[in-house]
Design goal:
Elements lengths: L3 H5 L4 H8 L10 H8 L3 H10 L12 H33 L4 H32 L9 H26 L6 H35 L1
Helix pairs in contact: 2-5, 5-6, 5-8, 6-7, 7-8
Bound molecules: fe (ii) ion (2 copies).
Length: 209
């Protein structure tokens, strides 16, 4: 059976899915061994790996229920693990070099905005999408909720533009390089997350309106 490291080869997005599930993407353990050791639901994780085996465009083939499940388990979990870790890295760097203060501020704001945003998606908006069963008349408040989420997505994008500018500056400090690598992963994950929500889930609801 392939190791986690082998499963990431050629499919870097699998590393972020493993990270979301609390597994080490560089591990030489098989998927089964890693899932048993970390008490991870292997069938669920395997399902998500298979859903995006061919890349993000494969998300188009998922049903709304599968897509929302994938967003919560892979992207929301990823953000909830990655943001505190990146914040801690940025804090340490800022103690010795004030150049990183702006990244710390952006991460702090993103963290404060992302958590209630994901909470509303998971507790209100996603269940309402599933409950309405394709009939927008059953969820008349949904367009307003989605408009607010999309405005928040645009605001999040401003933080990511700041991260991209920061990543353009060559770094020699190994700690700063690790932070930039983490921001690059965060950026890539957010592109998939926005594609899944804005371009697939929310745009399909606009067609119903
Ligand atoms: Fe989300
Ligand atoms: Fe969102």
């Amino acid at each position: 059976m392939a190791t986690l490291q082998e499963l990431v080869h050629g499919r870097p997005w699998n590393a972020r899915i493993f990270y979301a599930y609390g597994l080490d993407p560089s591990s030489n353990q098989s998927l089964q061994q890693a899932c048993q050791a970390q008490q991870v639901n292997q069938p669920e994780l395997t399902r998500h790996l298979e859903q995006v085996w061919e890349g993000p465009q494969a998300l188009q083939r998922l049903t709304p229920g599968q897509l929302l499940d994938y967003i919560v388990h892979c992207h929301h979990r990823y953000l909830r693990r990655a943001l505190p870790h990146l914040l801690a890295q940025a804090r340490v760097l800022t103690q010795n070099d004030s150049r990183y203060q702006s990244i710390l501020n952006e991460l702090w704001e993103l963290n404060n905005e992302a958590n209630p945003h994901m909470f509303r998606e998971e507790m209100e908006v996603f269940p309402a999408i599933l409950d309405m069963q394709g009939d927008l008349a059953r969820a008349p408040h949904l367009p307003r909720w989605i408009q607010r989420l999309e405005q928040e997505h645009s605001r999040a994008l401003q933080h990511f533009l700041a991260f991209r500018r920061a990543m353009e500056v060559p770094e020699h400090n190994p700690e700063a390089r690790r932070l930039m690598a983490g921001l690059a992963d965060l950026d890539e994950d957010m592109r998939w997350h926005m594609y899944a929500e804005n371009d697939l889930v929310f745009s399909s609801l606009r067609l119903l309106a």
